[in-house]
Amino acid sequence: MEKMKLLAQWTYTPKPIHRGYTKEVCLVDLGNRDGKYRFETKTLSDEFVERFTGGRGFGLGLLWEAVNENTKWDDPENEIIISGGPLCGITQYPGAGKCYSVFLSPATKQTYASNAGGYFGPLIKFSGFDSFELRGIADRNVIIFVDGDQGKVEIYESPFSPKDNSYTITDELHDYFSAEDEDRENGKRAISVVSTGQAAAHSYICGMNFSFYDLRRKVARLKQAGRGGGGTVLRHKGVHALVVKKRKVTGVENDPADLATLQQVGIKLHKEIHDYDDVQCKMRKVGTAHLNEVMNDYHLLPVNNYKFGQHPDINNIHSDVYTSLFTQGLPDGCWYGCSLSCAKAADNFELKTGPWKGKKVTVDGPEYETAASLGSVIGIFDPKWTIEANFYADHYGFDTISLGTILAFLAECYELGLINKDHTGGLELTFGNKDAMMEMIHRMAEGTDEFAVAASRGIRYLKDFLSEKYGADRKVMEDIGMEGQGLEVSQYRCQESIAQWGGYFLTLKGPQHDEAWLIFMDMVNKQLPTFEDKAEALYYFPNFRLWFSLVGLCKLPWNDIEPADNHIRYKGIEAAKVPEHVQNYVDIFNAVTGKNITKEDIITQSEKVYNFERVFNLRMGKGTREWHNIPARGLGPVFEDEYMARPDYFDDKLREAGIDPQGLSVKEKIEKLQAHRRAQWEKLVDAVYKRRGWNKNGIPTLETVKRLGIDTPEVVEVLKKHLRPEDEWDN
Amino acid sequence: MKLLKTYAEKCVRCGACMAACAKAYFKEEDPELSRIRVSDVGNMPNLNVCNQCGACIEVCPTQALERDKNGVVQLRKDKCTSCMMCVGYCPTASMFFNAKKQSQPFKCIACGLCAKACPTGALEIIG
Fold this sequence. Notes:
Number of strands of chain A: 17
Oligomer: heterodimer
Strand order of the largest sheet of chain B: 1-8
Largest interface: A-B, 28 and 21 residues
Mean pLDDT of chain A: 97
Helix content of chain B: 10-25%
CATH topology of chain B: Alpha-Beta Plaits
Shape of chain B: globular
CATH topology of the largest domain in chain A: Aldehyde Ferredoxin Oxidoreductase,  A, domain 1
Distance between the termini of chain A: 68 Å
Structural class of chain B: alpha+beta
Largest sheet of chain A: 7 strands, mixed
Number of helices of chain B: 4
Number of strands of chain B: 8
Number of domains of chain B: 1
GO molecular function (chain B): 4 iron, 4 sulfur cluster binding; metal ion binding
Low-confidence stretches of chain A: none
Mean pLDDT of chain B: 97
Helix content of chain A: 40-55%
Protein name (chain B): 4Fe-4S ferredoxin iron-sulfur binding domain protein
Radius of gyration of chain B: 14 Å
Keywords (chain B): 4Fe-4S, Electron transport, Iron, Iron-sulfur, Metal-binding, Transport
Low-confidence stretches of chain B: none
Strand order of the largest sheet of chain A: 1-9-8-13-10-11-12
Order of helices and strands of chain B: EHEEHEEHEEHE
CATH superfamily of the largest domain in chain A: Aldehyde ferredoxin oxidoreductase, N-terminal domain
Pfam families (chain B): Fer4 (PF00037), Fer4_4 (PF12800), Fer4_7 (PF12838)
InterPro entries (chain B): 4Fe4S_Fe-S-bd (IPR017896), 4Fe4S_Fe_S_CS (IPR017900), RnfB_subfamily (IPR050294)
């Protein structure tokens, strides 16, 4: 690569980390397409740190200050803020390299927070910054480089074309910025690149790829902050890549207060993973794709746009098949010290289509979500097709989850006759049509075909587009389009799990599995038997899981490995909490920060940010009950073939609801089941809002924000605009 | 392959090996700093020391563990990120650590100082 043209350069003195924090922010403002680049460091107050803890909390706190209620995702005021959190970058405990990206989302038009592994979060922190804050829109395409060794921030004119994609950009920048390192391989591993692909120029569903350099494979790997459209925002700002470089990681950069405890707790978990992973989740061999057959067994695998939960071809995508496709025996952690090693990859994979046809590549994943999204949900049970689609989705910048759910929606629209070949540019977009689906992915990335561009903007956009442009039936699309708040549903068929209705559709940011993945507890482990358990779970788990996003941890080592006696010592919802691991988190938080928190404080730290984000969305014109929509397909069967796939099961469900199915037509049965479940949904919404300290309209009450200490004048002002007496609870 | 072979039946649990090891590498005679550990198991001596099997090499994310020309597994401290995965994955629990002294783990490198210090011939460098 030729020498890049330097457009701006600043120096700074990296602030050392003390007990997990630098309390410094790196702000890069790209101006308003006028080339007025600006850099500054900001210091966070102790009060800010106390209120937001770190990571996603810092991102939300900074974004709140940057935008107003009229700011749109494509305004220069919108920001991308990437923050690790106080535990981010420790090496002694598995899964501690995570960071969170916060921005106003093009998909949901409200706040989004998306997490990623890779080395960017830790290295930007070791370069002196708890948060990297990107503002403005550049006058041209640029590369932003933070040199943590030299204390420099530089902006270069991007040498890449708008059609260059993530693997190209990432590889070349790892190469470019390690050119002066004597030990080139270790130079490359001191770098992390954040990029996206060409689809981000028009799509609303593009994520950001965060890299780390794999010393054994000698390639840069990509981990995704996939959801919510962060990549779309990045490209819109004219940023082809963010790059950080920081050499020499010793494992004590965070200046922990008690290294001995950190080591002991970490080693305990390493041993647990060593002893039990092979008999529990097999994360080290197959990553999250171990779930494929389990989901199928319990009718939770999404098949053909979530119509069905099982498929006879499940053995084609069995975890054993993926195990054989992934290279085994490598330490596949996406940060140092992650012995869970779930970042699996298929090596020497020869691409059969697209611009890189014939090229052999290393493909990151697929993880379970992609095995299902670019697989079962679109009726495809061919792992090699899925791996190829996974590669191109990452390369182009697509969030694989939204991509698959969109394609599934389109396939059903096609099979229902709502759209036809005249609309799809000649593609026969039926379930299982591999060639048509792959071609559609390439077209969605290319951005020249009107239909494909509309598809790349998500289901909510498509519902408007298809009804207005082609007269497609709006009601049917509302029933089958698996989205909430403008975000496509991730890959669990939730209709038989009341807890997961809430886990998906009573969320801050739309139906993802980051916030409350309760389906396994509910349907497989049967840990939430009562309605009260489910409502309690929808209070506890979203708050508990949010804590990972505050401190810089991955969720997986919490319950994708468990102490052998967890299910003996604890029952029900307590077992689902994995109390011994919760204590680990208390211990390592205290060991790093020198504080003295309890397990109850974990929930309080999270609840502050959870409610703050809810108020933030209220400020942006969302955040009320009407935005917690759930499609009919999320609740139960919509069409007769779905009901008739399990007629006895659904008849029993009607009887449990006090409805005699005898003499009813299938259509009538579906109507009654839907009506019953819709009533249950409303009951669930009430119960959950109440438990969360929100009013009937889903708004945190003044008492709640006071209890949490987030009742700043700005928060109270937003609430007072929206809180109405008629929305208060009766008792 | 060079390694330290142990003969537990000859061990009298005097601790001379641990003292020699700790003194050589940490300048203190604290058994907690030794790369060989002698303990009682059922009133019998148990000698725990690296057998140079190399399982740790596979799990190290930074390739900080490697065999030298003698086949001895060496930890390159400059490459180590103190993640402790090698400690958790050592089949014989022979990778040791002590946060007061250093963030990185430490292990037997078959130097033979302990064997020289042993009064009963319970330790021997072979290979």
